[in-house]
């Protein structure tokens, strides 16, 4: 399983990153072409409101002229400031001290980068070891945890089964949903002859583990690629395909495979996802909803036991 996880991660990076980098010039050309077509459509639409093309061009030229003037002024000011700083440091003999300080800061930043890389590698190693022991001794570990929850052993084991089952069911359902949605979007875009269908499918699959925001990211990515390849018409068709897949297909698959493993209102999922992102970053964003489902499932068991005792 560990080797399978590593292989899937490596293949995803290769297909997505390498595919996008290799076709970056084509993507840039398609995006420029799509934006140019969008500008022509917008100009034609504005002409219907009495705004001529010359008015649009004058407004654009005025905007860029103001930006250029502001940029030139800022550059001149920055140059004057840099010259003043250089003169000041040269006059009082502290120029070498400034350079030494900059070198020290650079070495410190490099040391921090190396330390971060080492910490990441060590964390990956620890995570792999924990995964190995969970795979080999799962039943014994779960039985030990259930016996040390401060409740009866059978109740503790039932709680462990509930929370682990909720987590397992959630990610199983999310994975099946992600595969179906990615295939649906990929098939629709392939029929439209949109390039980079495989990277779009991979991005859709990977971002499906982030509720709400992942769908938004993958949708924007797919629509931008369609806009660059076929213009605004293709982008709108791609948007329709994405909306149908992300809403209709996802709702059907979730209802069939997720069952009661989550049992949360979409507003609750959105709120807990935002809270998880604030306190836990990307990992908190992915785990907030299943963790809440685990807590609620454990609560239901405790409430049922309490009613039985009463």
Quick synopsis:
The chain is mainly alpha-helical and 310 residues long. The chain is built from 9 helices and no strands.
Verbal overview:
The protein has 310 residues and is an all-alpha fold. Helices cover 89% and strands 0% of the residues. The protein contains 9 helices and no strands. The longest helix is centred in the C-terminal third of the chain and has 46 residues, at 213-258. The protein is extended, with a radius of gyration of 28 Å. The model is unreliable at 88-93 (pLDDT under 50).
Key terms:
extended, 9 helices, 89% helix, 310 residues
Number of helices: 9
Beta-strand percent range: under 5%
Mean of all residue-level pLDDT scores: 76
Largest sheet: none
Taken in chain order, the helices and strands follow as HHHHHHHHH
Distance between the termini: 45 Å
Rounded to the nearest angstrom, the radius of gyration is 28 Å
Q: Any idea what the shape is?
A: extended
How many β strands by DSSP? 0
- List segments where confidence is low: pLDDT < 50 over at least 5 consecutive residues: 88-93
Class of secondary structure makeup: mainly alpha
What is the helical fraction, as a range of percent? over 70%
Secondary structure layout:
Layout: H1 2-22, H2 24-47, H3 53-91, H4 95-136, H5 138-147, H6 153-191, H7 197-207, H8 213-258, H9 266-309
Helix pairs in contact: 1-7, 2-8, 5-6, 6-7, 6-8, 6-9, 7-8
